[in-house]
Amino acid sequence: MSESVEFPFKAPEESSGYLLWQVTMLWQRAMKRELDKLDITHTQFVLMAALGWLSKEGGNVTQIDIANHSNTDRMMVSKVLRTLEDKKVIKRKDHPVDTRAKVISLTSSGEELLQSALKVVGEVDNAFFDTLGPYRPIVDINLKTLFDTHNDGVAK
What we know:
This protein is mainly alpha-helical. It is 60% helix and 6% strand.
């Protein structure tokens, strides 16, 4: 290793960003392992969950609504929704007012899949984060603070 590279810390574990990245990778692997059993990716789950949540509020849910709610890229959302439509877990229909937009909804099999996935995701989250014991609520509060502080609310 080059001696001329100077890091601002003695070990990578002293970097908040490094730790966040490593913990995120471990959590994603645990999530993938369980969601694979339902033949769904975590991204597919997130977009279905966004659709399910927005649908509870009533009204027409569009692709842009899903992208904004999940804070994800609109083009990626379009591709994933196409995959979910091919899996017959969502459907699209013409928007009653905006001719450029489609109204997105879960099919009955999509609702069943989402309900199963919500259970799996909850179990994975609990298994992963409960190791924090009484500190879990504090970590959640701090994560929410980071999210609220740095989220501009606009999907990229």
